[in-house]
Amino acid sequence: MFAIVRNWKTPANRLLAAASRGRPQGLMRGSWIADLAALGKAITLCGQCMPRWDARKNGYEQRNVTPNHRLAVGECDGCAATHVTCAMYLPKEKR
């Protein structure tokens, strides 16, 4: 087994990260979350978007952000609201 180590702090990678910021304009919110789930990315949802997305159906589960905190303040992937209390969903671990 081996690991690929990548330097994320190069100028080229910083430009790529700045260029791809969030959901593209004109893309429906539901398809954006479906794309994130298909890629196995972490998904953060605010209180209004949480009931609209079925995490179990997509193979995700809600996880604590830190050992003592279930929610975090951030940007919602569903409605793109900023500085809101969000829950973090991660893909279920295969045991």
Walk me through this protein's architecture.
Helix content is 21%, strand content 21%. By secondary structure, the chain is of the alpha+beta class. The chain has a domain at 27-91. It is globular, with a radius of gyration of 15 Å.
Overall 3D form: globular
Could you state the order of secondary-structure elements as H and E?
HHEEEE
**Sequence stretches where pLDDT stays below 50 over 5 or more residues:** none
Given helix and strand content, the structural type is alpha+beta
Radius of gyration: 15 Å
Kindly estimate the percentage of residues that lie in beta strands according to DSSP. 15-25%
Please estimate the helix content: 10-25%
Q: Helix count? A: 2
| Multimer state | single chain
What is the typical, i.e. mean, pLDDT?
Answer: 79
Q: Cα distance, first to last residue?
A: 19 Å
Biggest β-sheet, characterized? Answer: 4 strands, antiparallel
How many beta-strand elements?
4
